[in-house]
Amino acid sequence: MSIWNPWHGCHKKSAGCLNCYMFRRDSEYEKDSTIVTKTNSFDLIVKKKRDGTYKVQSDEGYVYLCMTSDFFIEEADEWRKEIWRMVRKRQDLNFFIITKRIERFNVSLPDDWKDGYDNVTICSTCENQKTADERLPILLNLPIKHREIIHEPMLEEINIEKYLQSNKIEMVTCGGESGPNARECNYDWILNTRNQCLKYNVPFYFKQTGAKFIKDNKLYNIERKEQMKQARKANIDTGKLL
Ligand code: SF4
Fold first, then answer.
1. Is this structure's pTM higher than 0.70?
2. For residue 194, what is the enclosing H or E element?
3. pLDDT by residue (tens digit) across 44-100?
4. Rounded distance, CA 66 to CA 187, Å?
5. How far apart are CA 193 and CA 149, in angstroms?
6. 45 CB less than 6 Å from ligand 1?
7. Coil vs helix vs strand at 61
8. Fewer CB within 10 Å, N- or C-terminus of the chain?
9. Please, what is the end-to-end C-alpha distance for the chain in angstroms?
10. What is the pLDDT of residue 204?
């Protein structure tokens, strides 16, 4: 697994962005996170070593693309064309794009995209019912080969049954929020989503609890390093894990 951040910086868009990790990290260095700039890793995925092999090798398998910005942000509309060319070139890797801007998916889409590249999975983040109902109908209607839903940070109970029954969703991931100002995440919401996934036979993944986790009406403050471990302990995943 590898991470490729061709640009950095973003603008807060919806409730899930409130405590964005990237903004938090940048503020420690007094860096303005709202300035979107290309990084030195812009062409990382096609860079080669002296022996002619790629720096990011095939056995990495999965590449998370754009984790300190949003892949579909306006400032990157021109840059994205180049990134699509690189993604197409690296058919040996699977690219995961996690976005809150699914409505901008078509901007700068390559001419040969057709019904999607096999090696691209688009993950639409929806943190509450409102964003689910705005974004998921768009996700389902776009020409995409692989689609996933992410509720992270999950801020309330979310009903996505009508989207799951489309048979077009390959995975649903849930998780709480991290950081000092984290909002609460309730285990009941997670279990509710899991039940929806079971009903429609969609793989489900509980990624992490977040820092403030409610279970059986009791609030638990969970340290960062324990948040994924506690989710694993719950042992409620039903599908593939990356
Ligand atoms: S879209 Fe993602 S990167 Fe951008 S502000 Fe929101 S959480 Fe942060």
1. yes
2. helix 187-199
3. 999 999 999 999 999 999 999 999 999 999 999 999 999 999 999 999 999 999 999
4. 29
5. 11
6. no
7. coil
8. N
9. 8
10. 98
